[in-house]
# Entry
Amino acid sequence: MTESSAARAHPVNGDFAYNDEPFMDDDLVVDLNSPSPTMTPSPTAHYTESGSHFARPQVAQSKMNKLLFGDKSKKKEKKNSSFSVPTTPATKVRVIAAVLWIAVIAGAVGGVYAFMGGGNSNKGPAAVTIPDSSGAQGFAQQYLRTYLGRASANNADQLKTYYPGLSTDLQGMQANQYFPLQVAVMYTDYLGDNYWSFLLSADVMRSSTQGLQLESAPLYFKVGIKQLTVADPTTKRPHLTYEATALPARVAAPVIPQGSDITTPTVDMSGIGDADLSNTVQGFFTAYFTGQPNPDPYISANADFNDITPPIAKSVEIAGQGSQVANDGTTLVHAAVRIIDNNGFADVYEYYLQVVKESQQWRVKSILPAATITHQAVTTTKKK
# Structure
């Protein structure tokens, strides 16, 4: 092969190869003084295809490295020499792969160690998952209704539907002593292991010599309810059920502790200085409850609520109001409204409104779902 017919070598997949002819395996001849080295391939060489070129075998690369860079294996190793990473591409890949595998294995070992409880022992307590109590709450409410309205010495079996362990003598109790109008859960205390204590309030009417009389205040009871998983007697499938662990216990009304951190409205009702805004509030609520006048002038085009229909009141009075600019630039209005309904009875409600100015006119955009509140430490719960 002449120099004119040889092509300059270039790397292919980490090896050197000619564009037109492959490198030889043995008897390689290179003229290092030539700007374009010429090489003579051996007729006995073997080659592998790589892309559109023929890449020489690894043994040829080894000989080429020795010719170009010298035989480094013959150099005497220095004692206590520092470790150096080989610079050939293939070796670099192997070293990097080995390092990555070591990192992966170390991470896996560390994860198992942590899972088995090793490492830092100053961990916080594990999060406790409290199961859904809605089913137990409904069961407790129905249990108390049954106790108040039907419990007697003659029909204890009705209570055993809720409290299978009932063994207390109900002597002297008579059914229909109380007529529960409403029973509600006030507080829930999770005791662990699918067991709750509920504080319930009951508005009741009581039998007396003068007939049924409404109790002046709610009655309060504590009830313990346990959640169980049992097999359905028909389908044999497991399902959740509940049972009471004792008869209801009559307790005092809950009390807000003195000096507790209670919530207070962020907007007081000390008055609205803007006469136009005050007139809008009065006009809006009058139209909202009575249907007169047309409420449209008081309601934003982007309002997210509907009118009350049909109208429910004869007259409306603003019992108190206040306003404050919110962080988003809109204005909040806190208003207490006293209405006389169509039957002549008075009701008092409180509202938080979001109002905006449209065409130089105050308009109500939203009736907020709840009061905006802040937390404030107080020394008394009494307010005048």
The chain has three domains: 1-72+88-111, 134-251, 265-377. The CA atoms of residues 282 and 318 lie 7 Å apart. The chain has five helices and 17 strands.
